[in-house]
Amino acid sequence: MKRVVMKFGGTSLGNARRIRRVAEIVKENMAEETVVVVSAMGGVTDSLIKTSERVVEGISETEIKEFVGDVREKHLAAIKDVVDSKYQSLPVLEVEKLCSELEKVLIGVSYVGELTPRSMDHIMSFGERLSAPIVSGALNSLGIKSRWFDGYSAGIVTDSNFGKASPIWHLTEKKVADTLGPILGDSIPVVTGFIAGNEKGRITTLGRGGSDYTASILGSVLRADEIWIWTDVDGIMTTDPKLVKEAKTIKVISFIEAMELAYFGAKVLHPKTIEPAMERSIPVRVRNTFNVDNEGTLIVREQKKISDVVKAISVMDEVALLTIAGVGMIGVPGVAAKVFNALAKEDVNILMISQGSSEANISIVIDQKDMEKAIGTIRDVFLGRNIVRDVHQKSDVAIIAVVGAGMRGTKGVAARVFTAVADAGVNVLMIAQGSSEVNISFVVQEKDAEMAARALHQEFIQ
């Protein structure tokens, strides 16, 4: 008996017509046992975030009520359009209840004048909680028995790290098995992506890429045969088609390659999505809701034969290069540790690291938005200690990641990479390669990123 978890993103659920199409896709492709994971309707989560921020700045109760009224009407209209009249009462009741709750939460935040991570998680959860009953109703209208669950009631229990919570696996395993296990095969559970709850039942969210992560968590604990991520592109591409028009869909890719690409800017999947599936060797398929005839990209543990040395080229922009320099760093133990600890305390994520053997400087790449905070933190830690002389910055840079499992043990790949880049007239500012040999990453000026991607795509993939 085949068991499949299907996830549909916000673009796939953009309006009533698309929700109807999602229900049809589920009907046409469902296995004997199927779980559906859904994001919020297109644009709803962004509007919830923007409105909550405006509430803190100070808007009237009238404006809050108008916003909630718009949210209510959007979802009630979708129910009217896609849910058969005999199945409308329950989703309508749920939308009314949730919108009443949303209004109270927003007014509460306005009185307090503070938006905590816990409050933000609660507010952001409404998008998925409103869409799941509609998708479930659409399935019932097509003759497919369905029930909806939020992530916590489905069984996903997390820590209390609001905004980017992590599953408590042993609790999640048991609760999901108890909740969803008995109904699989009899009906299709529609589960809210992105949302879970801590041990006390307080709403948490799983962070960026959370709906994909929900699908992978459920697929893992339910021992699914496959996890399908339905999105608005044909799959994982050899590079960004906006930069290189010759980019094409990758038919099969390994978990490690997909993780590297996701980490370095390929927006189809988040690295967290891959981990639970990889641990259980569950294939993940990325497919296009708007092009169902395309089989998309299949992500597997290991390909039987890897003929391509390089599988894809990823480009990550909006990053900054910081170089921490000073001869006083030479021979002083723990300088790197102090730098990384200081940045970690300020929640600055380090994307790449490089240090010369002279120990006179450390280069790191971080998100551009964290640049000023990072520079200030490093100067505070080392100021007046005669260790770090200066922190140099370059904000107009991009990371190019050349990814391919076929690079392992293949001689001359790095030479081909940097010869192609040099021949294109692109200067390399920093280089890093992990011991896995699956990825060579380097930093270039942002204005040169497109030229570098084109040159590498032509060298390895055309």
Structure overview:
Helices cover 41% and strands 21% of the residues. The longest helix is centred in the first third of the chain and has 25 residues, at 117-141. Helix 3 runs parallel beside helix 5, helix 4 (89-112) packs antiparallel against helix 5 (117-141) and helix 9 (255-263) packs antiparallel against helix 10. Strand 9 and strand 10 (297-300) form a beta hairpin. The chain is built from 14 helices and 16 strands. The strands form three sheets. Strands 3-4-2-1-7-9-10-8 form an eight-stranded mixed β-sheet, with helices on both faces. It has a six-stranded antiparallel β-sheet with strand order 12-13-11-14-16-15. The relative contact order is 0.10. With 462 residues, the protein is of the alpha/beta class. The chain has two domains: 3-229, 3-Layer(aba) Sandwich (Carbamate kinase); 312-460, VC0802-like (2-Layer Sandwich). The chain has helices at 16-29, 44-58, 61-82, 89-112, 117-141, 151-154, 169-179, 210-221, 255-263, 271-279, 335-345, 371-382, 413-423, 449-460; strands at residues 3-8, 33-38, 146-149, 188-192, 195-197, 203-205, 226-231, 252-254, 284-288, 297-300, 312-325, 350-355, 361-367, 390-403, 428-433, 439-445.
